[in-house]
């Protein structure tokens, strides 16, 4: 170190001396009695920067490892996985959706955590984006325009390479999730994923709402538009597709057409409306008319083609598609759509 101190007297300067001395310090192991309080704080700060673990856990690992920062980092990862397994039963209703595209194929996944604070962390976001890209690699036996569900079991043993300075290197998906959970100190789960393919004559359109950065958001809308001989009007088709993906997020349709509304959904809604109408004290004939009128209103609320278009509520989605078909000179249809929101269906 005497030679290093001499550096400060040269033209190189004191800042270079500090960097070299700091690196030399971090590469050594120490007993607790040989590390003064200033050096301890340096080690704690550097290990926290490396791992994002809580300060209390960082200090405990350094003490147990005789202030060897590399050994302490390994120890934190071991402890973190144990802690993460204990937290796996806790409700994880926050998180993000991540979207990935490859030509006419798109995937969207939901990665859950316990708090919005963790959802904003760049390590968590890096994992979510990597998982969406990984889902694109899953073999997809479905037909064009179907959306295929991808569960956690389909990914667990696949290899994943996270490109992040605090957690990099190849690992299985299962272990990568466990490692991020250890760093974050929360229960983190890959809940679900979907893949949708468009046909050779189709166009996939997507929209992410409440997006903190490209490819991430809290609500996703995806649809497949199909058209024959519409290549010369691809920009018009893509524009309408983007607006419809936004519409799906805002309007929350449940079915594509009236014919696809399930018998159970119709029966449940009819029974609810009958019960409500019966309290009016009107005649049975009047009640029946009220129920039928409200059923028509129900269809306008839950069927995509019957909904008023959110961008221009003077027309329905069906009228929009008819107008687009005339513009491109070929029939256009919506083959499929789905909407996905973080935490939907999770009991808090």
List the helices and strands and how they pair.
Blueprint: H1 2-7, H2 14-26, H3 37-51, H4 55-64, H5 69-86, E1 94-102, E2 105-113, H6 116-119, H7 122-135, E3 147-150, E4 159-162, E5 169-172, H8 173-184, E6 189-197, E7 202-209, E8 216-217, E9 219-227, H9 234-251, H10 263-278, H11 284-302, E10 308-309, E11 312-316, H12 317-328, E12 332-341
Antiparallel strand pairs: 1-2, 1-8, 2-6, 3-6, 4-5, 7-9, 9-12, 10-11
Helix pairs in contact: 3-4, 3-5, 4-5, 5-8, 7-8, 9-12, 10-11
In a few lines, what is going on in this structure?
Helix content is 45%, strand content 22%.
Features:
elongation factor; 12 strands; mitochondrion; alpha+beta; 45% helix; five-stranded antiparallel sheet; disordered N terminus; 348 residues; Elongation factor Ts, mitochondrial; elongated; 22% strand; translation elongation factor activity; protein biosynthesis
């Amino acid at each position: 170190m005497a030679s290093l101190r001499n550096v400060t007297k040269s033209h190189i300067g004191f800042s270079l001396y500090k960097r070299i001395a700091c690196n030399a310090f971090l590469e050594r192991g120490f007993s607790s009695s040989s590390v003064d309080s200033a050096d301890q704080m340096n080690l704690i700060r550097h290990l926290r920067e490396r791992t994002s673990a809580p300060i209390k856990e960082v200090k405990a690992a350094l003490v147990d490892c005789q202030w060897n920062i590399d050994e302490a980092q390994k120890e934190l990862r071991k402890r973190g996985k144990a802690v993460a397994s204990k937290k796996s039963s806790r409700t994880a209703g926050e998180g993000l959706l991540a979207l990935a595209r490859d030509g006419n194929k798109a995937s969207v996944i939901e990665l859950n955590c316990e708090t919005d604070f963790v959802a904003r962390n760049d390590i968590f976001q890096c994992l979510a984006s990597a998982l969406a890209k990984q889902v694109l690699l899953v073999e997809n036996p479905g037909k064009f325009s179907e959306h295929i569900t991808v569960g956690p079991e389909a990914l667990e043993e696949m290899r994943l390479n996270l490109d992040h300075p605090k957690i990099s290197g190849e690992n299985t998906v299962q272990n990568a999730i466990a490692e991020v959970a250890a760093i974050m100190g929360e229960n983190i789960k890959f809940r679900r994923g979907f893949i949708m393919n468009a046909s050779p004559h189709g166009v996939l359109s997507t929209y992410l709402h409440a997006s903190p950065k490209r490819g991430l958001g809290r609500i996703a809308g995806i649809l497949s538009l199909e058209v024959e001989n519409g290549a010369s009007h691809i920009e018009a088709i893509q524009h309408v597709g983007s607006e419809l993906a936004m519409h799906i997020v805002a309007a929350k349709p449940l079915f594509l057409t009236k014919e696809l509304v399930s018998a159970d959904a119709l029966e449940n809604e009819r029974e609810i409306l009958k019960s409500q109408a019966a309290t009016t004290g009107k005649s049975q004939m009047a009640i029946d008319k009220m129920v039928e009128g409200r059923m028509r209103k129900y269809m306008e609320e839950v069927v995509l083609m019957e909904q008023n278009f959110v961008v221009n509520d003077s027309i329905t989605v069906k009228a929009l598609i008819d107008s687009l078909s005339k513009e491109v000179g070929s029939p256009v249809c919506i083959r499929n759509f789905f909407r996905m929101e973080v935490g939907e269906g999770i009991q808090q």
